[in-house]
Amino acid sequence: MAYKQRIADALLERKLQGKGAVLIEGPKWCGKTTTAKQIAKSVLDLGDSDVFNQSERMIALSASALLEGATPRLIDEWQTLPALWDSIRSAVDKRSDFAQFILTGSAVPPKEKTRHSGTGRIGRLRMRPMSLWESGESDGRVSLSALFNGGQIDVLHCENDLEQLAFLTCRGGWPQATLLSDDLALDQAIDYYEAVTNTDIQRVDDVKRSPERARMLLRSYARNIAAQTPYSTLRADMLQHDSQTLNEDTVIEYADALRKIFVIEDSEAWNPNLRSKTAIRTSDTRYFVDPSIAAAALGIGPNDLINDLQTFGLLFENLVVRDLRVYADALNGKIYHYRDANGLECDAVLHRRDGSYGLIEVKLGGTDNIDAGAATLNKLAANIDTNRMKSSAFKMVVIGIGSYAYQRQDGVYVIPINLLKP
Prior knowledge:
Layout: H1 7-16, E1 21-25, H2 32-37, E2 42-45, H3 49-66, E3 73-76, H4 84-95, E4 101-105, E5 122-126, E6 142-143, H5 144-148, E7 156-157, H6 162-171, H7 175-178, H8 182-203, H9 211-223, H10 231-239, H11 248-260, H12 291-298, H13 302-306, H14 309-330, E8 333-339, E9 345-352, E10 357-363, H15 367-383, E11 394-399, E12 404-407, E13 413-416, E14 420-421
Helix pairs in contact: 6-12, 8-9, 8-12, 9-10, 9-12, 12-14
């Protein structure tokens, strides 16, 4: 199955028009190099061991020689030679021109290995595994951009089923997996999980870490997915399977390492202006960059999700958040969550830089669940002080299973995930 152009492709082109260099960051296997190579005119592939070894020797003699080549020049897996960062920044200053370099990286190197931040010279672009629209599994009949611009939707019929949704959740949005079928596709996330726990979590900063503890943390994260779970709770969960001493600082250190290789991606709290004095809780919500990692960490597959709809619902929420994050990038926005001291929660808020925002609840399906989600959205919208900020551009319940997209009488949209696009 061929897939559509990546959203990041257009974002990269745009950023290069105003920056001397652009860094594409994201997890391994998400398609960073493929996106970069569509634009690059020359390549330094540091992921190739022979090229890396030669470059490591050369950098001590003349780092600038590694940067020579037709532009934009791609420096693939740049973080393996972090000293290149300062050389690239210097080259951008000297050349005083845009679109000189594209860097890709699947890990964040320690700050002490670079002297300069690159601010103003090097732009950043975050890539994630593919959204359903990019993989061709959403037909895109409902546009978030159109809803932000005041557009309306008619009643739309669609087809979806529980088995296919469970498969997509466990398969994830890994580009190679979208080209495979059945068990071969499911193997990609499992292989990724094994690589992370056995190798990548140690390579990020050359700190020796226990693969078993990495697996325990990922399992605990998966069991607490879509919740504002404190590290103390994650530690207690891990201690049930760890006979050694484990303090909270160690859990935080492992989690930070996983963030640096873009495995986990928590959702920050949204802080709107409210009519009431209700306290807003600011803890992050736990998510993976892709729901398939959670499935791999738990050792479950599509049939397990179908037999455990509660877990399915939580992993489905992660899938929706993944897609919304990809779409938000295209809309100059960011995804947050909302929760206050009174227990009112909103799964996702798509807030754009122009101040517009949409309120979104996620439900696997079912009339009662949709009603509950709509009630939450209306309650939150009513508590926002529209004298101090805009009203929401839309309120939406994103569902996994349902035959129709439509707008309820209370104004809330109900949209199956396989109809969405940016």
